[in-house]
Design goal:
Order of helices and strands: HHHHHHHHEHHEHHEEEEHHHEEHH
Radius of gyration: 21 Å
Number of strands: 8
Distance between the termini: 58 Å
Structural class: mainly alpha
Oligomer: single chain
């Protein structure tokens, strides 16, 4: 094959760059595979996240992309906090990663950020009332309340203190009451919108962690298995709406959340997710759609979809892959993350370069990477 001079010059320039990138990715991911070999990497990412998330509430919100609007900035900020809180719990259970870290103060500061008026505002605007000052009302507020309750549950499990007990009990009782009084045990995230199953699952996980709502949790899961399964894919629905499509981002998040409350159901859903949405190869990941693969498309939940792959779905699937010890899939996904995100290290902290644009992605990825099956660790 003959190449003209411009093409030969281009090849000479690009081949070393490609080779360098391949070598970098191979080196950066060579120690991935188990908690011991990943420990330093996880600790350094954790420290970077603490430094960037444990800031003033308005400063954190302003770290979220302005183009997504105030509501989604609030949602991304609360996910950044709750996922960091969860990763702190995960690593504390797996190893004594916090022997030199003020764990209590970190999680407490995350809860205080979520309690702040600045962060609550995204929910207040949509519901027209403060979610914590209206616990006696019948409005849902399920997005805000479920993440806050989940985080307080993480705090109690690690720190063992009763500081937030009254608030925790009030929130969980309120969510439970509203779920039982709702149509088919589901609450809308916002007024006049469909039921988003992942948002409901966060609430079910929070009630499960509380330990006093087994009947509600078991009944909701029973209905999910029997009533809310998509007939074509076998996956738990993304949202309850006639003819609503199954989204890779929602399904991957569903799978992760199910690992926290129903291992058998989670395993079944994970297998179906991989069958329907997983694409292997150099750029391994989870597709956002089963019916099409857009070259580029923007979705506020999925992220910037490239060649059909969903950034958020690809991040969330690391959670069940870690839990079920599926290292082949997990390592392939983490190689994709390194290729796309590119790790940078400054001092004793490291993060993906893309986290400077989407901080929530770094927080989610760390929570998913540390979603170890505690029963197997024992």
């Amino acid at each position: 094959m003959h190449f003209s001079k411009p093409y030969r010059i281009l090849i000479v320039i690009t081949l070393p760059l490609i080779l360098t990138k391949v070598l970098w990715v191979s080196w950066a991911t060579c120690r991935y595979g188990n908690p011991d070999t990943e420990k330093d990497d996880i600790l350094q990412r954790r420290d970077w996240l603490i430094e960037n998330i444990c800031v003033e509430p308005l400063q954190l919100i302003n770290k979220m992309p302005h183009g997504i609007g105030r509501q989604y900035q609030g949602e991304w900020a609360i996910y950044s906090c709750s996922m960091l809180s969860k990763s702190l719990q995960n690593t504390a259970y797996c190893h004594n990663f916090y022997s030199n870290s003020p764990t209590e103060e970190i999680i407490d500061s995350l809860i205080k950020i979520v309690l702040s008026p600045e962060l609550k505002l995204y929910d207040i605007v949509r519901w027209g009332e403060d979610p914590l000052e209206s616990l006696d009302s019948d409005n849902s507020h399920i997005s805000y309340l479920s993440h806050l309750a989940w985080m307080i549950g993480n705090y109690k499990s690690i720190v063992g203190k009763s500081k937030y007990d009254n608030l925790y009990d009030s929130i969980c009782e309120t969510m439970n009451r509203r779920i039982l009084a709702s149509e088919d045990m589901n609450l809308p995230t916002y007024p006049n919108e469909p039921i988003y199953i992942p948002d409901m699952l966060v609430a079910i996980v929070a009630l499960h962690d509380n330990g006093n709502y087994h009947n509600t949790v078991n009944e909701w899961l029973s209905r999910a298995k029997n009533k809310w399964i998509d007939s074509e894919t076998g996956l738990l629905k993304s949202y309850l709406e006639n003819d609503a499509p199954i989204k890779g981002s929602y399904s991957a998040l569903n799978c992760y959340l199910l690992t926290l409350i129903d291992e058998d159901f989670a395993r079944e859903q994970y297998a179906l997710l991989k069958k329907q949405f997983y694409r292997g190869g150099l750029f391994s990941g989870i597709k956002e759609y089963t019916s099409r693969s857009p070259i580029i498309e923007t979705d506020v939940d999925a992220g910037i979809i490239l060649f059909g792959l969903s950034p958020s779905a690809t991040a969330f699937v690391i959670g069940p892959a870690t839990f079920f010890n599926d290292n082949k899939t997990r390592n392939a996904i983490l190689r994709t993350a390194e290729i796309a995100g590119h790790t940078v290290k400054r001092g004793h902290k490291r993060h993906y370069l893309l986290a400077d644009v989407a901080l929530v992605g770094e927080s989610i990825t760390l929570a998913m990477r540390t979603n170890y099956n505690s029963t197997k660790e024992e």
